[in-house]
C-alpha cells in the first residue's frame, strides 16, 4: 500500500491527483494507494508520497513538518508558473523532489512521477543530509523581515516607509531584494509567498523571513 498526502484544500484538485496516482501505482507497480490531506509531522512520517501545490518561491522556504518524513519518500512539487524552481537551491527537506506542471500532457506527468518514484527507491535520503544548520533555505535580514511583514499586512510602500522611519526608496530596495532571493516577478507572487509563510509562522524554524 502506498500512502499519499495531497496537501491542498481544493476537493477537485485532490480528486484529480487521486485518480492519476491510483492508476500510475496500480498499473506500473501493482500497488494500491491510500490518500490523506494536510501535512504535519505525524502524517509526513507515514507518507510514501507527498504532493504540494507550490506558490512562487515556496520551494526556497523551510517546511519543518517535512523533516519528519520518511527518508525514502517522494515529494511532488506542482508549480503553476512557467519557471521551474532551481533544483540545486532546494532546502534539505525537499530532497527527492520532482517538479510537475499540470499544463503538461498526462503522458509526460506520468513519466515524471514514475521516474521520481523509481529514483527514490534506488536512492534513499541519508541521515547526514538532514542537518538543519547546513540547510540552504533562504533567509532575509531583520530589516527585510520588517518590510515583508508590513507588505503581508497590506501596507503600501509609503505607509511602510513612515512606519519604519526609512526612505521609500529603501523600502523598494528591500522589496527588490526579497523578490530576487525567491525568484518572484510580481506583487501577486510576493503576496502569495508571504501568505504561505504566515501559515507556517507557528513554527519559528519555518519562518525564514516572517516575524508576525
TrEMBL record:
It comes from the Bacteria. PROSITE patterns: HTH_LUXR_2. Residues 133-198 form the HTH luxR-type domain. The keyword DNA damage does not apply. The keyword DNA-binding applies. Coiled coil: none annotated. InterPro entries: Sig_transdc_resp-reg_C-effctor, Tscrpt_reg_LuxR_C, WH-like_DNA-bd_sf. Signal peptide: none annotated. Keywords: DNA-binding. This is LuxR C-terminal-related transcriptional regulator. It comes from Buttiauxella selenatireducens. The lineage of its organism: Bacteria, Pseudomonadati, Pseudomonadota, Gammaproteobacteria, Enterobacterales.
Amino acid at each position: 500500500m502506498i500512502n499519499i498526502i495531497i496537501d491542498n484544500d481544493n476537493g477537485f484538485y485532490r480528486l484529480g491527483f487521486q485518480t492519476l496516482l491510483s492508476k500510475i501505482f496500480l498499473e506500473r507497480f501493482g500497488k494500491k494507494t491510500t490518500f490523506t490531506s494536510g501535512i504535519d509531522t505525524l502524517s509526513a512520517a507515514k507518507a510514501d508520497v507527498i504532493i504540494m501545490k507550490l506558490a512562487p518561491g515556496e520551494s526556497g522556504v523551510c517546511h519543518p513538518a517535512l523533516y519528519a518524513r520518511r527518508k525514502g519518500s517522494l515529494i511532488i512539487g506542482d508549480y503553476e508558473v512557467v519557471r521551474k524552481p532551481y533544483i540545486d537551491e532546494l532546502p534539505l527537506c525537499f530532497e527527492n523532489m520532482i517538479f510537475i506542471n499540470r499544463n503538461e500532457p498526462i503522458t509526460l506527468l506520468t513519466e515524471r512521477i514514475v521516474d521520481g518514484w523509481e529514483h527514490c527507491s534506488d536512492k534513499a535520503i541519508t541521515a547526514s543530509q538532514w542537518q538543519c544548520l547546513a540547510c540552504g533555505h533562504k533567509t532575509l535580514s531583520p530589516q527585510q523581515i520588517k518590510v515583508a511583514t508590513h507588505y503581508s499586512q497590506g501596507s503600501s510602500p509609503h505607509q511602510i516607509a513612515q512606519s519604519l522611519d526609512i526612505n521609500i526608496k529603501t523600502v523598494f530596495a528591500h522589496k527588490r531584494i526579497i523578490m530576487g532571493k525567491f525568484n518572484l516577478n510580481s506583487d501577486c507572487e510576493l503576496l502569495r509567498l508571504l501568505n504561505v509563510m504566515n501559515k507556517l509562522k507557528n513554527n519559528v524554524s519555518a519562518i525564514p523571513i516572517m516575524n508576525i
